[in-house]
Amino acid sequence: MTTWRRPVTLIGLALVPVAVLGVFFVLPVSGMVARGFWPDGDFAPGEVLDVLTRPRTGRVVWFTVWSAGVATLLAVAVGLPAAYVLHRLDFPLRRAVRAALLVPFVLPTVVVGVAFRQLLGEAGPLGFLGLDGTPVAILAGLVFFNAAVVIRAVGASWESMDARPAEAAAALGASPRQVFLTVTLPSLRPAIVSAASVVFLFCATSFGVVLTLGGTQYSSVETEIYLLTTDLLDLPGAAALSIVQLVAVVVLLAIAGRLRASADPSIVRVPARPRRPRRSDLGQLVATGLLLVFVAAPLVTLLVGSLQVGDAWSLDNYRALTTTGSQQALLVPVTEALATSLRTAVDATWMSLSLGLLVALAVTRRWRSRAERRIRGLLDGFFMLPLGVSAATLGFGFLITLDSPPLDLRDSPLLVPLAQALVALPLVVRTLVPVLDGIDDRQRQAAASLGAGPLRAVMTVDLPVLWKPLVAASGFAFAASLGEFGATAFLARDDHPTLPVVIFRLIGHPGAMNYGMALAASVVLAVTTAVVMAAVERLRVPSLGAI
């Protein structure tokens, strides 16, 4: 009986989140895929296989792999110097710079798309380069988002790296370059490869950036699924691409998980304290400064554009947010959409936090048998799957599977928060898991030996360590919900849209007033998410990049 008690406890902890993901993730996605394989009620896999031989499918897959690969290399190249500067050097405003470089990761994709269009468009400061609507603009947007992942993942590893081997190499006469190549880089390699795999995953599944900056001229797998489901109603094509995407993501998650597990937590490390910059650090400092300019340029351009009407400075774009735009572009004012976004984000946050805490408790239990280890690995991978499924697939799957009793949720106010909670769930889990993993189980055993029950042990051992990561996870979930666009574009009703959906509709309607409102609404949304992430950064919880 004792042999099976721990695996049964593990399954019991995971039962609720597994059931929720089964109903609100597996069911919609499998329903979407089933519509592709059984288009008329009869099994017809040939139609799906034919999709993979289309010339356009080949171009879409190639563009996805090419753009994600190049963007990953660029993100790593610009992120490594910044990781060193922000985690190994001590200088004034270091925390402010770190927060500024973290904000892009959680900015709504629609906001970033509008910001880069404002920067690179014909009337923008860099319009003379002719990059608007080109693959270069898409790459810039992807790097803008994902450099933060490299900075946080590699920076956390750099910060905790044992300083003694590098000091010994330097004492033996090795130059700084030799120390980096022979000591530092091998130690950082697992973190770099893990971060690169996560960045590639995010780039390959990017939706809003490619859609707003590339339109239909440059389609990734993600935007092609959206096009096939909404415009062409080609469900076999969408199913084929969804399967390809899901398989690729499972492989990437397995690689990232193996790399995370390769670190030996039993090694005693003596990390070096941050030091003052030296002349030899000038190159890294300049690179970090250029990255900060790269991050600030589109956001500053967005802010300036929102404050201009014609050639004059004005707040009219912000005043217009209480209207429905010119030519009735919207059904509700932007301010009402913002209120809807905030309410939805609150609901999505408590949902994802409740599920994520149960998942984290389940996957961090100390395993003592091969069965427990296998169950934990399967659960860990299962709860990361929402990262790899197209938001369009998930949203459309909600519509076609949750449309009849007892799961007729098409008119439920919880439909959009549920979808957004699934999107935010991996962020919550990866924020909490490292913290729970780091708690010494002997402390719980000591509390139990002193007569503390399970709840008392959690209150006295786990909660003091966990409360900051819980608050940080709430911030990540809230920010992710505010900016979620892919699934929400399917599910949000016209009379209750969220702010990202409204912004996308405004830039799709002609008229200077509508475009000015889109700029102002983008600034409001960006400031809201930036404030949330600035508060999270003050908690100093290193989570991004551990996905």
TrEMBL record:
Keyword Transmembrane carried by entry: yes
InterPro entries for the chain: MetI-like, MetI-like_sf
Task: Return the SUPFAM superfamilies for the record.
Answer: MetI-like
Q: Where in the cell is it found?
A: Cell inner membrane; Cell membrane
Question: ABC transmembrane type-1 domain spans which residues?
Answer: 61-256, 338-536
Q: Could you say which residues form the signal peptide? A: none
**What GO biological process terms are annotated to this protein in UniProt?**
transmembrane transport
Looking up Pfam families in the UniProt record yields: BPD_transp_1
Topology in the lipid bilayer is annotated as: Multi-pass membrane protein
This protein's source sits in the domain of life called Bacteria
Residues spanning the membrane:
60-84, 96-116, 136-155, 191-215, 235-261, 282-304, 348-367, 379-402, 414-436, 470-492, 512-536
| UniProt keyword terms in alphabetical order | Cell inner membrane, Cell membrane, Membrane, Transmembrane, Transmembrane helix, Transport
Q: Which GO terms describe its cellular component?
A: plasma membrane
The family note in this entry says: Belongs to the binding-protein-dependent transport system permease family.
Q: Which PANTHER family match?
A: INNER MEMBRANE ABC TRANSPORTER PERMEASE PROTEIN YDCV
Q: What protein name applies here?
A: Thiamine transport system permease protein
Species source reads: Nocardioides psychrotolerans
